[in-house]
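Propose amino acids for all 158 sites.
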């Protein structure tokens, strides 16, 4: 079995418009939404929402999603360090000045990215709903609820 993991950012509108708040708003990042998708069926297994300034892997650790060791995880380079928690994880290799990528590394990265396309398509399906594509202007407490409801609708369509 293979599981795909990815994160998407979402802008949230701040209702207060004073100069100090606008300055703080620029410093803040948008909330991140994490999806764990089953590769075979394309269904969303679980979701998580976290602060925007957090790293993707940090959001994965805080969501307390635990996947069995026999299941392979395909993730992007934002999940550096996931192999410490899950030994059966595949990440693309990074290019550096001292160690450029070989042709074999590029082929492996291309293979991983072609396998991960499904999770990007699921994120696109979520963003078809305008409430998740544009600035969220409703109550922040209900953001996670709406995110989970839209994920359930997408699973129901499949």
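Proposal:
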């Amino acid at each position: 079995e293979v599981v795909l993991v990815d994160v998407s950012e979402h802008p949230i509108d701040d209702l207060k418009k004073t100069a100090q708040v606008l300055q703080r708003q620029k410093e803040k990042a948008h909330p991140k939404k994490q999806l764990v998708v089953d590769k075979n069926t394309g269904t969303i297994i679980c979701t998580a929402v976290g602060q925007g300034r957090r790293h993707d892997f940090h959001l994965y650790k805080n969501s307390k999603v635990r996947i069995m060791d026999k299941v392979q995880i395909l993730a992007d380079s934002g999940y550096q360090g996931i192999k410490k928690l899950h030994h059966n994880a595949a990440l693309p290799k990074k290019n550096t000045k001292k160690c450029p990528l070989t042709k074999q590394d590029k082929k492996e990265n291309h293979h991983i990215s072609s396998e991960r396309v499904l999770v990007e398509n699921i994120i696109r399906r979520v963003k078809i709903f305008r409430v998740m594509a544009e600035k969220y202007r409703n109550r922040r407490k209900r953001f996670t609820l709406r995110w989970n409801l839209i994920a359930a609708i997408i699973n129901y369509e499949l």
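The beta strands are 2-9, 32-38, 44-50, 72-74, 89-90. The first strand starts at residue 2 and ends at 9.
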